[in-house]
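Structure first, sequence second, as always.
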């Protein structure tokens, strides 16, 4: 069992706060060495991430990636506007400006937020889909400058093509290769226009992201029911880009909602330390969410989003809900209330999301579509309504409009927060209470993720696995019923393996952004069985790496 840091759940001491002047100076004055692997552009499941202090997210990276995006747009004939957003991390503001200098120099028509407001990931995705609806030419795409819930020293860059969701692997591979080619040549071929001239350019226009999102949200959520319920709601934006959304939503629909913290500060000094003692704005962490948890008796329901608002955290009077638990309740509610969705519309889940969703799907008579890790896999299924709801265990999800058309094809934290309010308003019970009743009927799973060190050999071995190479016959004492190295929903490689029995499973896959191997386990037979699954998983991994 991993050790909890003594600072976990406590506000960070002054000496723990990031030195923003040093961080920003490094962004402009440190230069990456393209010959060093850790300093090259590398797109994981959520774009390129790094820190200026380690020469992995500096102005030169942003110049190179932005030029590569412009090249990709020309290659694909994408000539509509590009919606450019960014969150509240210190490096996001700098990278936003750097990206704009390149985009405008390349003649891209850029839409930026009105009055310089921070712009959340789901708001950008929604804007892309709204623009592209009914169009076959002049399509829009987008960039979000964010490292999501990562610590204050980090920066990140995500590209969303015209489908509105995270770019697929072949797209990011092309952008990554092109960006590194630019870096290797000292960015000599990158086109630039000075920032002052960029802002004056006719290529830059303001767009009211907030208005578009707020006005449309009544077409996907029962806002009248939430308002009529009189539920007392609390929200903590955790100093992130969802902050500009909450007051307009409350005012437009007459919701009783209190923002418990309106502070924005790039040190994130108001966010309690996470389990490991680091400042990490993770709305799934009971440590980072401890301040909101302390307030839970003041509200019927409270919630939070991470800095780019693509994740949600749901706080009932009983608890901070486990993401898997809430996603189960959300799926149940959506498929019982969205009667205009196509009858063949299914539940989308990543392969490491709780098997409780499989049981709910069976109970509802709905197909469950299981895909590899990464929200990008849900994009086509949300577009064609093959899935009405797509979700992943790390508290990311989105779903369709009432009429079955796509609202966003990226994770949407505010949407999932307000869905919790709709559920409570219409079912007269908290999501926690509903989940507890579900477990009485469908079983009560225990779920845990472990981390193990991973190197290039580990990645290579896991990536080369096929079901025939896996010799394990029993899991936690029960017969193995499935060995997966490809996702059953779309046949795509999972980069590891998932081994399943009737009462539990484990999955092993290397992280796309860290030097760790993630080991996921879930049991429907209790704590002892979960420990047995974990032992089987670790033994399996050790044997695999010895061969």
């Amino acid at each position: 069992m991993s050790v909890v840091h003594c600072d976990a759940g406590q506000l960070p001491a002054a000496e723990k706060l990031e030195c923003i002047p040093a961080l920003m100076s490094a962004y402009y004055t440190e230069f990456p060495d393209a010959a060093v692997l850790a300093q090259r552009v590398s797109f994981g499941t959520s774009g390129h991430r790094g820190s200026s202090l380690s020469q992995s997210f500096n102005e030169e990276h942003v110049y190179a990636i932005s030029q590569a995006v412009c090249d990709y747009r020309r290659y694909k004939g994408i000539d509509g506007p590009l919606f450019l957003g960014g969150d509240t991390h210190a490096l996001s503001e700098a990278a936003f400006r750097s990206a704009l200098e390149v985009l405008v120099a390349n003649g891209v028509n850029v839409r930026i937020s009105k009055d310089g407001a921070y712009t959340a990931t789901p708001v950008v995705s929604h804007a892309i889909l709204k623009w592209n609806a009914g169009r076959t030419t002049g399509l829009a795409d987008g960039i979000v400058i964010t490292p999501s819930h990562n610590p204050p020293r980090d920066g990140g860059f995500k590209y969303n093509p015209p489908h509105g969701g995270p770019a697929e692997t072949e797209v990011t591979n092309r952008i990554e290769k092109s960006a590194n080619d630019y870096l290797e040549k000292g960015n000599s071929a990158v086109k630039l226009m000075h920032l002052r001239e960029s802002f004056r350019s006719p290529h830059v226009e303001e767009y009211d992201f907030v208005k578009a999102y707020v006005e449309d949200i009544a077409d996907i959520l029962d806002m009248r029911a939430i308002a009529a319920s009189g539920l007392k709601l609390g929200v903590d934006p955790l100093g992130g880009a969802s902050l500009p959304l909450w007051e307009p939503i409350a005012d437009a629909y007459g919701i009783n909602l209190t923002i418990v913290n309106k502070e924005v500060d790039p040190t994130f000094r108001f966010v309690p330390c996470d389990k490991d003692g680091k400042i990490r704005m993770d709305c799934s962490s009971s440590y980072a969410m401890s301040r909101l948890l302390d307030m839970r008796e003041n509200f019927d329901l409270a919630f939070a989003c991470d800095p780019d608002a693509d994740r949600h955290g749901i706080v009932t009077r009983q608890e901070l809900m486990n993401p898997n638990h809430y996603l189960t309740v959300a799926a149940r509610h959506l498929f019982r209330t969205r009667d205009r969705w196509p009858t063949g519309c299914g539940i989308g889940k990543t392969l490491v999301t709780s098997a409780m969703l499989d049981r709910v799907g069976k109970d509802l008579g709905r197909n469950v579509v299981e895909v590899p890790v990464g929200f990008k896999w849900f994009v086509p299924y949300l577009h064609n309504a093959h899935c009405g709801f797509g979700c992943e265990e790390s508290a990311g999800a989105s779903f369709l409009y009432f009429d079955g058309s796509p609202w966003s094809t990226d994770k949407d934290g505010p949407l999932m927060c307000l869905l919790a309010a709709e559920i409570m308003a219409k079912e007269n019970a908290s999501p926690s209470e509903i989940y507890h009743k579900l477990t009485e009927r469908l079983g009560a799973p225990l779920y845990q993720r472990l981390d193990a060190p991973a190197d290039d050999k580990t990645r290579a071995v896991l990536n080369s696995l096929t079901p025939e190479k896996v010799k394990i016959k029993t899991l936690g004492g029960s017969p193995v019923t499935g060995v997966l190295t490809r996702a059953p929903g779309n046949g795509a490689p999972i980069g590891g393996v998932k081994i399943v029995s009737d009462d539990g499973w484990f999955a092993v896959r290397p992280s796309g952004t860290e030097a760790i191997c993630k080991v996921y386990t879930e049991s429907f037979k209790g704590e002892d069985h979960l420990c047995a699954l974990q032992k089987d998983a670790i033994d399996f991994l050790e044997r695999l790496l010895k061969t």
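Margin note: Residues 444 and 524 are 6 Å apart (CA to CA).
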